[in-house]
Amino acid sequence: MMYTSVKRVCDFLIAAIILILLLPISFPIIIFLRLTGEGEILYLQERIGYKNKKFYIWKFATMLKDSPNMSGGLITLKKDPRLTPMGDFLRKTKINELPQLVNVLCGDMSFVGPRPVMQKSFEQYPEDVKNVIYNVKPGITGVGSIIFRNEEELITREKEKGNDPWEFYRTVIYPYKGEVEKWYQANQSFQTDLAILILTAWVVIFPNSNALYKYFEGLPVNPLGMDKV
């Protein structure tokens, strides 16, 4: 409980400082988004959050507004044709996640925690995972986010094989995400959160790195062998 309170204060202060510091970078992105694609700047989407309550997550818009009703539905593939001119870059660099600092300020999210997902995605979790995964606030990054940073590539590969992406989520990705997030809750601390933040930046620069598994030796074994990369 003590760490949770301290974490909330740190989340608020750091988010406020970063938002101010990033204003010079944010303005060019906002202008470019307004002048390209459909002119949308922000994208708000309903997600499952703390204690399984719903909230709206903030992101920079990277896809066409009617994407959920177009081919592909809720699943985004690598080089998805529904991406806006700047969308692919924003997603690869994770810059599209920056508006979530507002979610952190509001208390809906933390910097570190399990990623908040849509209702349909939440339904792919095993029942035991649904009951516990959001006993902590969802995060901008987390153990699962680092491990499945190339999730779009994995899903694209399954699609190309003729497999059902949702079945892959249900039987492979979400069961494992659940296990690693349960591991995170059991090992949550300032040191763990700091290491996750550093490793998040590290894998953006070195996307093929498995440094996470080397640092956290007690993580559940990856079913896809990604811990051996």
Characterise the protein shown here.
- The protein has 229 residues and is mainly alpha-helical.
- It has one domain (2-228).
- Helices cover 50% and strands 9% of the residues.
- The strands form 2 sheets. Strands 1-2 form a two-stranded antiparallel ribbon. The protein has a two-stranded parallel ribbon with strand order 3-4.
- Helix 1 (2-21) packs across helix 4 (100-106).
- The protein is globular, with a radius of gyration of 17 Å.
- The termini are far apart.
How many helices in DSSP terms? 11
Estimate the global geometry from the Cα principal axes.
Answer: globular
* Series of secondary-structure elements, N-terminal to C-terminal: HHEEHHEHHEHHHHH
Q: Roughly what is the average pLDDT, rounded to an integer?
A: 90
What count of structural domains? 1
Strand order of the largest sheet: 1-2
Radius of gyration, rounded? 17 Å
> What proportion of the residues form beta strands (DSSP E)?
5-15%
First and last CA, distance: 36 Å
Output the structural class: mainly alpha
How many strand units?
Answer: 4
Secondary structure topology:
Blueprint: H1 2-21, H2 23-35, E1 42-48, E2 54-60, H3 87-93, H4 100-106, E3 110-112, H5 119-122, H6 127-130, E4 139-141, H7 143-147, H8 151-160, H9 165-187, H10 190-205, H11 211-215
Parallel strand pairs: 3-4
Antiparallel strand pairs: 1-2
Helix pairs in contact: 1-4
